[in-house]
Structure to design on (246 residues):
């Protein structure tokens, strides 16, 4: 691919991965799952690369980190997009399965992958899948959040993601075991939650496994329903939030 830009960011506090994809020719970019505390970093990278931010894309309603969506929208004029089922009413565009968003000469396809939450989507850009908390490297998102559905998660991964080409790259929403990228062929062969596992078995195994991701925070969910917009008082409180792992 000619003249594309790609960056992966990691938030150390929550092990969240965020991504920037861009088209150099048209000087346009999208950011996926940005974290509020890293807005200066994103703006600096956009400036350095000479890109205008067109879209802020959420893979789902995050429960562990405050989204940077609203701040980036205010700073750059970008539009926020998320699944119509994510419960983020203030998003500028409510996405459906099969939609395509333009970023310069490139398209980002929307693949509905519900289960971890009803509004989870995976974004496909060129040879990369941004899977959010649906498919992780050697793992998958938890099913302990309100409205999680283990059967839907299994079907999303096996029918919508593992059916893609082997060489399709998997960029997840969280870092487990320090890996930053995988591919569909590897996940199909080696992911212990899905390889050789029936749907019923998956649901019982996943429900009994401790969730390795940060615990859900009600105040974070509430802020993210408003694209991550929080009051000054809440901002001060969030500064003291600590995250724990099981
Ligand atoms: Fe999540």
């Amino acid at each position: 691919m000619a003249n594309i830009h790609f960056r992966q960011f990691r938030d150390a506090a929550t092990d969240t991965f965020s991504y920037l994809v861009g088209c150099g020719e048209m000087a346009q970019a999208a950011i996926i799952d940005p974290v509020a505390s890293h807005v200066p970093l994103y703006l600096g990278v956009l400036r350095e690369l000479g890109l205008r931010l067109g879209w802020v894309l959420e893979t789902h309603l995050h429960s562990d980190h405050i989204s940077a969506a609203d701040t980036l929208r205010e700073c750059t004029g970008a539009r926020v997009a998320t699944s119509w089922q994510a419960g983020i009413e203030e998003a500028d565009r409510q996405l459906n399965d099969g939609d395509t968003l333009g970023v310069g000469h490139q398209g980002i396809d929307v693949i509905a992958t519900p289960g971890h939450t009803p509004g989870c989507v995976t974004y496909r850009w060129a040879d990369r899948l941004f899977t959010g908390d649906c498919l992780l490297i050697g793992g998958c998102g938890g099913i302990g959040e309100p409205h999680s559905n283990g059967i839907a998660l299994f079907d999303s991964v096996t029918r919508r993601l593992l059916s893609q080409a082997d060489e399709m790259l998997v960029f997840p929403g969280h870092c487990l075991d320090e890996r930053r990228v995988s591919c569909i062929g590897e996940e199909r062969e080696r992911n212990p939650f899905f390889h050789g596992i029936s749907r019923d078995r998956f649901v019982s195994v996943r429900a009994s496994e401790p969730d390795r991701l940060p615990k859900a925070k009600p105040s974070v969910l509430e802020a993210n329903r408003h694209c991550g917009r929080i009051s000054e008082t809440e901002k001060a409180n969030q500064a003291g939030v600590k995250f724990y792992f099981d």
